[in-house]
Design brief:
The protein is an alpha+beta fold. It has seven helices and ten strands. Helix 4 crosses helix 7. The structure holds a DNA duplex (16 and 16 nucleotides).
Amino acid sequence: MPELPEVETVARDLQRWVAGAVIDEVEVRWERTIRHPLPVERFAAEVRGARIAKVGRRAKSVLLRLDDGRLLSIALRMTGALLVAPPAAPDDRYARVVFHLADGRQLRFRDVRKFGRIGLWRRVGQAFSRHGPEPLSGSFTAARLRERLRRRSGRLKSLLLDQSFIAGVGNIYADEALWHARLHPLRRAGTLTLAEVARLHRALRRVLRQGITNRGTTFSDYVSADGEPGANAEQLSVYRRTGQPCLRCRRQIQRMVVGQRATHWCAHCQPLAGAAA
DNA sequence: ACGCCTACCTGCTTGC
DNA sequence: TGCAAGCAGGTAGGCG
């Protein structure tokens, strides 16, 4: 599902396909996709005629920077996809918002489950003031992670999913990072040793980078802007590998529910008591 | 601060 | 075959 690597893949593709394009018209087919409190009519009026200057990503949102400095944020949530359709492409019943580009193409926000949200902002800070640091940025150091962990008492798994703690990590990459770091999902944040924090930091960056390299993880819905699934599912170590052998110790991967989320881990490599060998 | 719950949605899988 | 229940999980908001 779209987490940081999937959204990054979409953003990089769109930078190539639609940077410089002009939005002629906006067609909103599911009104709740447009973030409250902006009325849909005003949203369409505000976006009409704008040129897309640059496409980027913050957290799990694709950002379309308009040439007057305003920002369109598109949160894909569970099933959202941004697809560029050529002029004669057949319609898509799941296209919730269609940006009609001046060159005849359409930038479609496809979203089966309607969880996705599109917002319009004056500045980046407005939209993401409550989000935590970007795990792949240069300023996200092990020391900074340690500082943030030290102040918390919650479980690692829940914390990794908390967007105000770290931006962009979701259920798949959280489980993967904990396996690589050999840390139990229920470990309390404040109890990590220096070496464990270093492992977690390294693991987070490793799994996210690998996800980007493989153009994202696809189980059912995720496709990048070219409509193609990602290749990272085959590279996963624990996520949805319940009962299969751990790639380190060959023991069976376990599954449990933490904070209402399916969680996969190796009971041997990721022990709860004491540091893993 | 944290855990826990519900709501938001639809399609696919499972079980009877 | 039909049909209902269960499941998937990102995020906001509410409660204790």
